[in-house]
Structure formats: structure tokens, C-alpha cells
Specification:
The chain is α/β, with parallel strands linked by helices. It has 13 helices and 13 strands. β9, α8 and β10 form a beta-alpha-beta unit. α2 runs parallel beside α5 and α7 packs across α11.
Length: about 375
């Protein structure tokens, strides 16, 4: 099959990029079409044929303002020569059209049988389920009031355009039952759940400390790492916060210089695995459609204290490999930590619970699904 891969952008490391990397390993000859590419921000695709266009000239910092331009760019790509297009998206890449779609709508198509499978990890968050969160803090500093005003005016036409673009893919695949529900709610499309790949074997290490809790992610406001910091201050428990991002200074300020909270930079997988294996538990206060980082923690034998909503419900089982807490507040998490410490976990069984999310399983399920829809 002649295959093309498509993604919203390639400017930093994240869960979507891990999915794309696995697809690149499966289809190494497939070109990757994306709106912006920064090999310094993510160096995983130096051996790939990455193709960008006019949006590459814009600064990455303006990315959140480029949604309409991105959609127009993806809509304008002629990928009708490919037998299969797989888009990995939580934004505008789903707007690309397959040869089959073009042919069905009376438009020129080089391959009327060409299919588009959209691996949609979530509907465009700032238009839909996280619209209110985005309004609270758009992330533009002193320009926030102006951005809020403009976004309130623009959100309805942006939603209409996004929903229209979501009617283009021939098939939807997504990462969790929670994400499947969001796709049905906002796009009126059915989706098949194929959980993302997690590098399980890279996190199988042993450690003995068990003296601290840990959380590791990009430090952005909707990840709610502030809740983890506040909860550990309330419960007087040691917390390691690994990562970086625009919320870093705010998190350091919340910690108030206490020795209970230690901030560490991004690190290599092996080092991260050792920290995870040596932790009492992994704190995951974020409402996410999946969450690869907590599954990596499970793979290291580290039980997870997670918000009892979203994608975490697909892999955290109360009392077996972690604990679910509600609501999404520091007080609830602090109480959850104290309840968590009353439980006993078999760390080998905790690690085993992550095996169903392996890369090998992902490869097989994707290939089987491609065969099924290509018949």
C-alpha cells in the first residue's frame, strides 16, 4: 500500500508524537505531512520524509492562533494518490481528504479507493470540552483579555468548521472510551478504540526507595499539576515534579521553597523509569482522554493515584493498581493519598496491568483494523 501519515504539528514531544513515531516504524517509507516541524524540539523523525508548507514560516509560539489557517492548509493538500492516509490529530489534520471522499463528492481523485483513517485522540479541545479552561487562561500573558474577547466571537464559526472537517475521514479510531464518547458527542461520528502504544519494556526496572510521590508531564495549566503540589503540601508528603513548561514558575511559587516538593528537568527514559520504580505512587490529577505517562508508571510497577474520570478509567482499577479520587481538587487528592497509603499493592501485578498497552499490541490492532476496512 502507498501510505501517507499526517499530524497537526511536530514541534515538541508528547503523546500524539509517540503514536506517530510508532506508525512511522510501521510504515517507514510513508511521508509525514505536517503544518510545522522543529527537529530541535523533537528529533525522533530525522530519518523520515517530513513535508511542510506555507505555515512553516510562522513562529511556533503563534500555533494556537493558526487553527483556521491550518485547516485550510490541510484541506488543500492533494493526497488522493495514496491508498491509505492515517492522520494523528487532536486539531486540524483530520481535514485532509482521501481519494475516496473526493471521488464521492465529484472532485478529481487520483485513487478513488484511497482511504483516510483518523486516529483522533480528542476533539479539538479549545473549541469543545476545554473551551472554558482555555478562556480562563489562554496563555498569552498581558494579551489574555484581547485573546478572550476575540475567541468568544470566533468560537462558533470555528466549531462549525471543525465539525465539518470531522465529517471527512472515512473512519475514526481513538485512544479511550472517554475519547470515543467525546467524538460521538461533538462530531456525531462513531470511533473504534485502539489504545496508544506505551514502551512497556523500557520501564521494567527495580528500585527500593518508595519514599516519595511523583508526577511527570508538560507543565501546562490544564494538566493541573498545581493540585498535586498543593495536595502533597496538605498531606505533608514528598513529591518529585518532573518536566517543564509555561506553568513552571507558578508551580515553584506554590511550593514556596519547601523541601517537600522537588522540581527536576526532563530526563531520559531509563532515568525516569528508575525514579518511577522508586516512588510510592504516581499522581495524575489531569482530566485527559488517555495519559501515556501514568501507564509508563504502571509499567515500572508504580501504582497510580488518578482523577476518577477520563482515560484513566481505562487502566486504573481501584485497589488493584492504584486509586481513583474525585473531585478534581487538592483536598480530594490529599485525602486520596492518605487512603492510598492504607492499601497494599503487588508491584509485579501493577506492572503486568500495563502490558495490554504495549507497542506490539498497538501494531497488531492497527494492522488488523487497516485490513478490515480495506476489504
Amino acid at each position: 500500500m502507498k501510505v501517507a501519515l499526517v499530524c497537526d504539528w511536530l514541534t515538541n514531544v508528547g503523546g500524539a508524537e509517540k503514536v506517530l513515531l510508532e506508525l512511522h516504524k510501521m510504515y517507514p517509507e510513508a511521508p509525514i505531512y505536517t503544518s510545522q516541524y522543529d527537529p530541535k524540539g523533537i528529533d525522533w523523525f530525522r530519518d523520515a520524509d517530513v513535508r511542510t508548507g506555507s505555515l512553516q514560516k510562522y513562529p511556533a509560539k503563534l500555533r494556537r492562533l493558526l487553527g483556521p489557517k491550518r485547516q485550510k492548509w490541510f484541506e488543500g493538500l492533494d493526497l488522493s494518490e495514496y491508498d491509505l492516509i492515517i492522520s494523528v490529530t487532536g486539531a486540524e489534520a483530520k481535514a485532509v481528504k482521501s481519494g475516496k471522499w473526493l471521488h464521492a463528492h465529484g472532485l478529481p481523485s487520483k485513487n478513488p479507493e484511497g482511504l483516510h483513517i483518523c486516529y483522533c485522540h480528542v476533539p479539538t479541545q479549545y473549541y469543545w470540552q476545554m473551551y472554558k479552561d482555555y478562556l480562563r487562561n489562554p496563555g498569552f500573558g498581558v494579551l489574555n483579555p484581547l485573546v478572550r474577547f476575540a475567541f468568544r466571537i470566533m468560537v462558533r464559526p470555528l466549531r462549525r468548521a471543525d465539525k465539518k472537517a470531522a465529517q471527512g475521514p472515512d473512519y475514526f479510531v481513538t485512544i479511550s472510551e472517554y475519547a470515543k464518547g467525546l467524538i460521538e458527542k461533538y462530531y456525531k461520528r462513531d470511533a473504534v478504540v485502539i489504545a496508544p502504544p506505551v514502551e512497556i519494556d523500557d520501564f521494567k526496572v527495580k528500585a527500593k526507595k518508595k519514599e516519595y510521590y511523583i508526577t511527570a508531564s508538560r507543565q501546562v495549566n490544564w494538566k493541573r499539576i498545581d493540585i498535586a503540589v498543593q495536595a502533597c503540601l496538605m498531606a505533608q508528603r514528598k513529591l518529585l515534579v518532573i518536566g517543564e513548561g509555561p506553568e513552571h514558575k507558578k508551580l515553584v511559587k506554590i511550593a514556596q521553597g519547601t523541601k517537600l516538593v522537588e522540581f527536576l528537568p526532563l530526563m531520559k527514559k531509563r532515568e525516569l523509569a528508575e525514579y518511577l520504580a522508586g516512588a510510592k505512587g504516581y499522581l495524575f490529577p489531569s482530566l485527559e482522554p488517555f495519559g501515556i505517562a501514568p501507564v509508563e508508571a504502571l509499567a515500572a510497577g508504580c501504582p497510580v493515584v488518578a482523577l476518577g474520570a477520563g482515560g484513566a478509567l481505562d487502566y486504573v482499577v481501584d485497589g488493584k493498581n492504584g486509586l481513583l479520587f474525585k473531585p478534581q481538587t487538592a483536598t480530594a487528592l490529599a485525602e486520596g493519598i492518605l487512603e492510598f497509603e492504607k492499601l497494599k499493592f503487588n508491584r509485579e501485578k501493577v506492572a503486568k496491568s500495563a502490558e495490554k498497552f504495549s507497542a506490539e499490541r498497538f501494531d497488531k490492532e492497527i494492522r488488523d483494523y487497516v485490513k478490515k476496512v480495506s476489504k
